[in-house]
Every structure is written in structure tokens, then in C-alpha cells.
Design goal:
Blueprint lengths: L8 E5 L4 H12 L3 E6 L2 H11 L2 E5 L5 H9 L6 E4 L15 H28 L4 E5 L12 H20 L6 E6 L6 H6 L11 H12 L9 E3 H8 L1
Parallel strand pairs: 1-2, 1-4, 2-3, 4-5, 5-6, 6-7
Helix pairs in contact: 1-7, 3-4, 4-5
The structure holds NADP nicotinamide-adenine-dinucleotide phosphate (NAP).
Length: 234
């Protein structure tokens, strides 16, 4: 049977661990050539060796010039997975440290703008450019203490919606994927008292990323809840 992502080139941010790592593995298993982007070069290189058809792209999302430089080094691209993010401080807005607020905006929003700017021409050149923006339920349900995480994810979603309008009439598709509670370091930070073994794994939801990255995917600007998807496939 033909592989879903045969011959596609995919850049995944935060591919060194958690959801990004599982997505890279699933993409590679479906025939994609993965560009593993992130800061932990040792982990990325070890994954690239294990996957075979993969390369490492040093990418610190907190460094705008480094992001521009990194995107300039990419020669061709079909799929961008904007996955990496920070949780930021979990304190009420009245006490929110501005530095932590600005940092979350840099990592979760501005960095993804720079990635889109740097990779837009390549995505449009692809016969099936695909962007998957990893969001969160926090973007749409206000909770006390949601802080910069909730606000940056809401901004990221609107950025994706605006970009969807701007690529109208091209083969580029951009969708927002909300993983829901998933067994990673970030989730452990959000809910330290939760038993991680009660949660789904990044591997459980990686096939949904494959579906959205596929040339066959025609969805556009949709908000996709991985838990709803998981129920439909199990
Ligand atoms: N897990 C959940 O329950 C859940 C629920 C809803 C949404 N999400 C979303 O899912 C995505 C993946 O999160 P995860 O759960 O897999 O968390 P994770 O295991 O904590 O991974 C976060 C990733 O982001 C990277 N990152 C953070 N700051 C970076 C920077 N400045 N430059 C480059 N990379 C940076 C980390 O790299 P380092 O190792 O270098 O720090 C790591 O690879 C995030 O967008 C998160 O908001 C997760």
C-alpha cells in the first residue's frame, strides 16, 4: 500500500520530545523526510539517526534572527508542524510578570509568524502545502491562571485563521489541532498530581497529524480536537 506521506518534506518544531517527537516518527513511518527542528541537538541527532530519512535544524524559537536564518536554509517544504511551545507562568493576570508574558508571546506566537514568513514561498510552491498549528483547549476556555499560555494560543489560532484566508485559492491548507490532555512533560507541569498513565500518549494522536499533513487533506482553518478524533477511530 502507498504510504500517506511518501516523498513529502516535513519540518516539525520541538521534534526532540513529547508530541513533536511522536509526530516525526509517525511522519517518517509514512515515508516523509523529516526536518527535526529544535534546540536539543543531541536528542534531535539521535532521532535523525534512528529515523534514517531525516535531518536536524537547529532552531531556538526565542531568537528571531536564528529563526530567519533557519528558514533560509530550508530548500523545499510540503509540511510545517508548528508544535513547540512554552507554558509560561501560571499566576493570576494581576501578578503576571511582564518578562514571562513577553517570552511566551515570542515562543508561541512571534516565532510561528517568522516561520510562516520564512516558509510561505516554499509551502505555496508545494503541490500540497500543509500547516498544522498545535493549539490547546486553553485558547477557547478561559480559566483563572490560564495566563500567557491561554492568550498566546488564542493569538496563534487567529494567526492561523488569517493565514488561511491569505492562502485562499492556493493548495496550501492550515489547520489547528488541539491535542487535549496528553502524556508529556508539559502536561505534567500543568497537572502535577495527575497519574500520567491515565492519559493518552503522543503516539496515540500522531496518526491525526499524518491525516492533516496528507496531500489528500482538504480541511482548511478547522479546529480539530484530538480526543473527539480518537473516539471516532477507536
Ligand atoms: N501535552 C498536552 O497535554 C497538551 C495539551 C494541549 C496542547 N499541547 C500543545 O502541544 C504542543 C507540544 O507540547 P508537549 O505536550 O509535547 O510538550 P513538551 O514535551 O513540553 O514539549 C515542548 C517542546 O517545545 C520545545 N520548545 C519550547 N521552547 C522552545 C524554544 N524556545 N525553541 C525551540 N523549541 C522550544 C521544547 O524543546 P526543549 O526540549 O528544547 O525545551 C519541546 O520540544 C505544544 O504546542 C503544547 O502547547 C499539549
Amino acid at each position: 500500500m502507498a504510504k500517506e506521506l511518501e516523498g513529502r518534506i516535513a519540518l516539525i518544531t520541538g521534534a526532540n520530545r513529547g508530541i513533536g517527537l511522536a509526530v516525526a516518527k509517525a511522519f517518517a513511518a509514512e515515508g516523509a523526510r523529516c526536518i527535526l527542528a529544535g534546540r536539543n541537538l543531541a536528542a534531535l541527532e539521535s532521532t535523525a539517526r534512528a529515523l534514517g530519512n531525516a535531518s536536524v535544524l537547529p532552531l531556538d524559537l526565542d531568537d528571531p534572527e536564528a529563526i530567519r536564518k533557519a528558514t533560509r536554509s530550508v530548500a523545499a517544504l510540503d509540511i510545517l508542524v508548528a508544535n513547540a511551545a512554552v507554558l509560561g507562568a501560571r499566576v493570576p493576570l494581576k501578578d503576571y510578570p511582564l518578562e514571562a508574558w513577553l517570552h511566551a508571546f515570542q515562543t508561541n506566537v512571534h516565532a510561528n509568524l517568522l516561520l510562516l514568513q520564512g516558509l510561505d514561498a516554499l509551502l505555496r510552491k508545494s503541490d500540497a502545502g500543509r500547516v498544522i498549528v498545535v493549539t490547546s483547549g486553553a485558547a477557547r476556555t478561559a480559566r483563572a491562571g490560564g495566563g500567557s499560555y491561554a492568550v498566546t494560543k488564542a493569538a496563534l489560532e487567529m494567526m492561523a485563521a488569517v493565514y488561511a484566508r491569505e492562502v485562499a485559492g492556493t493548495p496550501v491548507r492550515i489547520n489547528m489541532l488541539n491535542p487535549g490532555p496528553t502524556r508529556t512533560a508539559m502536561r505534567a507541569q500543568v497537572a502535577p498530581n495527575e497519574d500520567p498513565m491515565t492519559l493518552k500518549t503522543p503516539e496515540d494522536i500522531a496518526p491525526l497529524f499524518v491525516e492533516l499533513a496528507s496531500p489528500a487533506c482538504k480541511r482548511q482553518a478547522e479546529w480539530i480536537n484530538a480526543d473527539v478524533w480518537l473516539k471516532s477511530v477507536r
